[in-house]
Amino acid sequence: MKSRTTEVMPIVWIVIFTSFFLVIAGRFLYIQVSGEVSGVSIQELADEKRTNSYSIPASRGTIYDRNGMALAQEHVVYRLYAIVDESHTTNPLHPKHVKDVNETAQKLAPILEMEESEIAERLNEGIKNERFQVEFGSNARELNQEQKEEIEALELPGINFIEEPIRFYPNGMFASHTIGLTDKQDDQIVGINGVEGFMNDLLTGVNGSISYQRDKFNMKLLDPKEVINEPDNGDDVYLTLDQKIQTLVEDALSEVEDEYDPARMTAVVMNAKTGEILALSNRPSYNPNDIGEVENWYNDVIATPFEPGSTMKVFTLASAIEEGVWNPDDQYESGTYKAGGRTIGDHNGRQGWGKISYLEGIQRSSNVAAAKLAYEKVGSEKFLEYLKAFDFDQKTGIDLPGEVAGEILYNWESEKVTTAFGQGTTTTPIQLMKAATAITNEGKMLKPYIIDKTVDHDTNEVIAEKEPEVVGEPISSETAKKTLEVLETVITSENGTGHNIYNLNDYSVAGKTGTANFVDPETGKYKTGRNSYIFSFLGMAPAEDPELIMYVSVKEPNLEVTESGSAPVSFVFKNVMENSLRYLNIEPDKDATEPIEVVEIPEWEGKQTDSYVNKLKELGVKPIVIGDGENIKKVNMQPGTKITARQTVMVATDNMKMPDLTGWSFRDVLSFRDFLDLDLEWMGNGYVKKQSIETGSSLNEQDYLMVELEEPDVPEDQENASDESGEEANEEE
């Protein structure tokens, strides 16, 4: 029996091992033939393990103003990290990891504004935990070029940088509610409001990729089978905003903000012939490069309806003229008017001015005149048709997110009366501007727009371009002309609420003042007090054939006892409107009270510096000369350009040197940047205090320049227009 077992068992083991061998061999044969293991391709797995793949980020499109000045663009910053793994160093003579923790911490601390101990602790912790690299938190992120170069000059082993894109707004607090903001989501810049949000899909590109095969030392193979998919960059957006006009608005609002500390302000400038928005701003505002605490996220010009006050009388007047019931010489009894179950009072304590003409009533901004025109002469139901024809019951359709329409309150008989002088019914500034285009454009009402065109970032091909769009014709051309004539007398007549307040030096103005009540959210009633109003002005210039429309509102300014509510409003309007018309080369239509000499920029090509500069001085221009070269390289204005002596002319020589910027305004610094295409960064607000390039140093185009700004210790005196004839609050019982 034992002999039998001895004979059988070897055979059994042979069969078992043979079967096992056949299974293994079969498995290897199957793998060799099919190239798969558990459904996974061995070749693909091997390729994946030895292939490096990286994403190539697409650039987000740039937002430009109408003249090609960048308002929002991608900006490269740097994130610092330290390699602490010794194995990364292959040559001890050239270490690639942090060799001396204490020295590294000591030298980095002042640049990163961190404690040496904190940097050393992070480095030691990384070494202890056998990490490959460590980072240093927010202080080591978003470093600028100057900081990067300062750290690189230290030649610290193991210290490296990663380039990262951020969204940068070259003009800081400049149309910030309109341009909008972005946020980083999954390492991609995404627009969240304003144009950034509205046009996000177009601005956002599609990332590309690169892949190649490498060895175990992470080096490319001789035949790396490199595959590159180029990124599809985001497209560019050009706005109708004009940087120079927008800067005028921002500067004027900032001055009023400092002087009067109002609760809210809005200002918007529009091309009267096209509906293009040339400037738009609100206060409070914010700097998108340094958000901080934001008081107001709303773009009030389009998103905050309010009772407009007497600016609504513009459209009450136009309705009466169109209906043929306007007779400027007709007389009425001013002071009070009983209609719709209530008594309407004029703004001068209900006293009125006795029996006066309707023309004088409009000039004096009489609530009684407006109410009688709408309620008696036009008729309340017909007047409602005009309100709807002017689109006061709907959004303007402006190409910005977040627009909110006002509401025509016409449910009660009393509301049919108060709407005539801008109380009860609400509108937004942009609705008033849209309606005003019918007055300035021969009865044709235009749709306001702020996006001019979209352009392919890589080919510069225009993808889409906006054109002016007529969206209604609420009045005739003749009515528009007569309305302008009456509104001009609001400024020229001694009885006018805008007389000696909204006059311009070189241009006639047609317009209407406004003083509106607003509801106190705490009490639910109209707020009372001398300053507790929204003071506003809707102006058009030149009066006979307006090129620009401007609306300004200032809510609750802190006024001096001797000042009217028109003071801060007129300061903004006069500064912006006068200078904008000059900038646009609009021909003045009246003699200036102080004639301003206009000169023509002479030819500078091939001219020597001294002779050209002397020529400019003879013309009354004091140029800024950049450098000490004998010949002129370029001038910031083309030959033949007509300017006034007030404008800044920059002359670059063929040996450019850095000028002393101390005391320069921020506006002049921006002009200097644009002239030489400099990579400019700044800190603070106001006037230049420090500059990164030393005065007299060699200067080249596209150089990096950092300036530090500060507000002057004593603000310059500000001339504020005031006139006691200005309109007071709307009154009613």
From TrEMBL:
Record keyword Chaperone present: no
Compartments, as annotated in UniProt: Membrane
Enzyme Commission numbers on file: 3.4.16.4
Catalytic function, reaction form: Preferential cleavage: (Ac)2-L-Lys-D-Ala-|-D-Ala. Also transpeptidation of peptidyl-alanyl moieties that are N-acyl substituents of D-alanine
Gene Ontology terms, MF aspect: penicillin binding; serine-type D-Ala-D-Ala carboxypeptidase activity
Domain (PASTA) ranges: 595-653
Biochemical pathway: Cell wall biogenesis; peptidoglycan biosynthesis
Region (Disordered): 709-733
Protein name: serine-type D-Ala-D-Ala carboxypeptidase
UniProt organism field: Gracilibacillus thailandensis
